[in-house]
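Sample pair:
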Amino acid sequence: VVYRAGEGWSYEPVGGGGKWVRTRAKDQLEVAQKAFDERDYSLALKAARRTVKMWPLSDYAPQAEYLAGRCYEAKSQDEKAFKEYQNLLEKYPKVENYQEILKRQYEIASRYLAGQWFKLWGYVPFFPSMDKTVAMFEKVIKNGPYSGVAPQARMNIGAAREKQSDYPLAVRAYETAADLYHDQRNVAADALFKAGIAYNKQAKTAEYDQSVAGQAISTFAEFISLHPTDPRVPEAQKIMDGLKTEQSRGSLEIAKFYERKGRWKAALVYYNEAADKDPNSSYAKEARQRIEQINKRNPQEAAAVGN
């Protein structure tokens, strides 16, 4: 085990210590590159990191930091690779392969979105985390707000929130993407459709919150209006019809609750809603029958609601 000032402790094979160490940045980077090309990622990482630590202001430091990130990726240490790339972009914002590095960050975050586990101490697979995944995508967007990967990074934030069943945050991410990239037709259409899907999922978790179903219907209606030739229009229309039926059912249940309490005026309001939300449904038919019965028993209440 060898200690070097400014570098810390490192392991050197017996009899071979220091053979990879050079006294010039250019030579040290060449050691790193040669080891990387030969797939000796441990040696390449040591040589690359030494180049950055000893000559941080040299012209060779950005390439060395890039190689360090590539080594971490090759060693399946994606989180460390992402951080190395982040350091590189922050310290050397004019690096020539900026867009490639940004794409690598995006691909790493996408692997975590797909279910890859984060590692304890960088080695032991420990847990998946959509919060950490979202944080990665947010850094990608911050690093390249107008890059080619930024729109999909925003969409992937929505997908990550959906995996957490945090539908309000998913909707926010999709709607932000739809607003920011309204001039990119495919992105805008996809964002609106997925926002509607997220609203629909949220509506299923809130039985008596009809406002969420209403937001889903409005979002799908906007999607159909703006993108009438999209192949997903029939699916959007089918979901809208189902939501309207669900709204009718929900209003019917609320109306029955008020009727049982003898609150005829409130019952009539919700029975009328049930009849209007989805006029051809069985719920609407039952609502109209209940309205007729209440009108016969309580003509004054019916007149008040009518006014």
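The mean pLDDT is 89.
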